[in-house]
């Protein structure tokens, strides 16, 4: 194994070894590289002040990703290019997004400005649009404490509306060549007095490390585990990154569905899942921010077992399964069976999530995903309700052929409403059937009251979401119901 990582920092090759496994990219930039433009704001990936951009080779093309350096571990930079605010321009030639920020007066106190600029830089490099929706999505992970959003949005629209050639600065080919040179496969083990950081190149190596190092924790995007370091000040003895394992970073389309490696990020999985289930794509759009989605992984979100993770209920409703591996042994289980109770999952010592399989929709199935939260962007669900029913029509009567319903935020784990599902199957899809199903649904869950919502509110919302699903799946056939849907939507927004 190599005892160091290699990466490009603002175009310069850096070789780094012997570091603390919990060293974040932000700490490295500010304390060791002495690049102070990247700021620490929240230290939990919410405010975007620490945003930097990484570049990687994907199928021979350079892909840029904005990410939160405050919760990203330094070991994850192996084989990548890292850009900070200091490296995207010269005093004589500011980058177009910097020029737009100046011309539109987009900076006030200036603390958050580098993060905004780097988010815009990442979007610019990837060809993001300058329309308001695209700009809002791009900047959802950046907080301006001076409330100077209007000129920042103006600057974003101005810069991102420019015609951008594929090789906008004449350096992309050279960057691709440099990345190819440092992206050679091979495992890495960084050892220091503080602990070890492993970067296996294959799942076999990962399985071997976990067998020999029982205390090792797997890290994927770091969007959850990073907070254990920055907020709880935990010192991990050993971390194992899955960022460099090709088979765990792949999405493979098959006749029956999608195989998604456990290390695939939300940003990568998004277009694939959206093709299967359009509502799943819209739900992913509201998970975190660009910075979070570019780092956070589907496998990691499942692995931490959170009862309020949005990906788990939608994947459960879709009928997803997990492949778990320990050593050379593999077992496949329904995703819902992975969650046993709050804080407890069906994962044995030394075992890890290798992939997620998402089946294609059943004939006649309609999957709808509803996220209810206090804010549209960057917020945790009070209730996340997913309905995946298929319908059959006979003698002019529409009946429920199959049903999968799952909720997040309603119990100690993401949980299917199996009693409600069983009741619905075979029943006519009518208001009376839905009314009876809502009564069963109300008895299924025992939600808690917390800062996001009261138990009573959660019960009411869960019940009303079934009504919403009914109205949305019948409105096109019944003008009367279409009018009710418009009324229902107006008071639930």
Topology:
Elements: E1 5-9, E2 12-16, H1 25-32, E3 51-58, E4 61-68, E5 81-83, H2 96-103, H3 113-125, H4 132-139, H5 149-160, H6 172-182, E6 188-192, E7 195-199, H7 203-212, E8 217-219, H8 225-230, E9 238-241, E10 251-254, E11 257-261, H9 266-276, H10 278-285, H11 290-295, H12 298-303, H13 311-317, E12 321-326, E13 329-334, H14 335-338, E14 339-341, E15 344-345, E16 352-359, E17 365-372, E18 383-394, E19 397-408, E20 415-416, H15 418-424, H16 431-444, H17 455-474, H18 479-492
Parallel strand pairs: 1-5, 7-9, 8-9
Antiparallel strand pairs: 1-2, 3-4, 3-5, 6-7, 10-11, 11-16, 12-13, 12-16, 14-15, 17-18, 18-19, 19-20
Helix pairs in contact: 2-5, 3-5, 9-10, 15-16, 16-17, 17-18
Overview of this protein structure:
- The strands form five sheets. Strands 2-1-5-3-4 form a five-stranded mixed sheet. It has a five-stranded antiparallel sheet with strand order 10-11-16-12-13.
- Helix 15 (418-424) runs antiparallel to helix 16 and helix 17 (455-474) packs antiparallel against helix 18 (479-492).
- The chain is globular and about 75 Å long.
- The chain has 493 residues and is an alpha+beta fold.
- The chain has 18 helices and 20 strands.
- The termini are far apart.
- Helices cover 35% and strands 23% of the residues.
- The longest helix has 20 residues, at 455-474.
- 45% of the residues are buried.
- Strand 8 (217-219), helix 8 (225-230) and strand 9 form a beta-alpha-beta unit.
- It folds into two domains: 1-184, Beta-grasp domain (Ubiquitin-like (UB roll), Roll); 248-492, Enolase-like, domain 1 (2-Layer Sandwich), CATH 3.30.390.
């Amino acid at each position: 194994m190599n005892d160091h990582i290699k990466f490009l920092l603002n175009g310069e090759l850096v070789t780094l070894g012997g570091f603390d496994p919990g060293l974040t990219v932000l700490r490295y930039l500010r304390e060791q590289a002495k690049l102070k433009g990247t700021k620490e704001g929240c230290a939990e990936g919410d405010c975007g002040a620490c945003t930097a951009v990484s570049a990687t080779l994907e199928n021979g093309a350079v892909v840029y990703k904005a990410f939160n350096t405050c919760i990203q571990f330094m070991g994850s930079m192996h084989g990548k290019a890292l850009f900070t605010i200091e490296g995207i321009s010269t005093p004589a030639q500011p980058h177009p997004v910097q020029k737009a920020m100046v011309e539109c007066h987009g900076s006030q106190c200036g603390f958050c400005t580098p993060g905004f600029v780097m988010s815009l830089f990442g979007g610019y490099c990837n060809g993001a649009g300058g329309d308001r929706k695209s700009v809002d999505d791009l900047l959802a992970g950046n907080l301006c404490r001076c409330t100077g959003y209007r000129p920042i949005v103006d600057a974003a629209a101005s810069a991102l509306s420019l015609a951008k050639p594929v090789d906008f600065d004449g350096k992309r080919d050279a960057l691709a060549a440099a990345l190819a040179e440092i992206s050679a496969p091979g495992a890495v083990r960084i050892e220091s007095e503080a602990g070890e950081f492993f970067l296996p190149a294959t799942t076999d190596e990962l399985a071997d490390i976990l067998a020999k190092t029982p205390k090792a924790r797997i890290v994927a995007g770091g969007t959850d585990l990073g907070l254990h370091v920055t907020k709880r000040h935990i010192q991990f003895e050993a971390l194992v990154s899955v960022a460099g394992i090709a088979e765990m970073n792949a999405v493979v389309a098959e006749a029956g569905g999608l195989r998604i490696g456990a290390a695939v990020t939300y940003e990568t999985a998004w277009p694939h899942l959206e093709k299967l289930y359009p509502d799943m794509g819209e739900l992913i759009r509201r998970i975190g921010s660009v910075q979070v989605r570019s780092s956070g992984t589907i496998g990691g979100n499942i692995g931490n077992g959170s009862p309020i993770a949005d990906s788990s209920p939608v994947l459960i409703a879709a009928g997803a399964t997990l492949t778990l591996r320990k050593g050379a042994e593999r077992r496949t289980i329904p995703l819902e069976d992975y969650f046993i109770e709050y804080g407890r999952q069906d994962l044995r010592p030394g075992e890890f999530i290798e992939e997620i399989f998402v089946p294609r929709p059943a004939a006649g199935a309609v999957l709808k995903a509803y996220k209810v939260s206090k804010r549209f962007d960057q917020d945790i669900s009070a209730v996340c309700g997913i309905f995946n029913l298929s319908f059959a029509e006979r003698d002019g009567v529409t009946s429920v052929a199959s049903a999968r319903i799952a909720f997040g935020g309603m119990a100690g784990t993401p949980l299917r409403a199996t009693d409600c599902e069983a009741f619905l199957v075979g029943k006519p899809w009518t208001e009376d059937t839905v009314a009876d199903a809502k009564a069963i649904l109300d008895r299924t869950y025992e939600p808690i009251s917390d800062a996001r919502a009261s138990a009573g509110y959660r019960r009411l919302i869960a019940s009303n979401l079934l009504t919403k699903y009914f109205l949305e799946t019948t409105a096109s056939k019944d003008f009367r119901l279409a009018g009710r849907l418009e009324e229902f939507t107006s008071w639930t927004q």
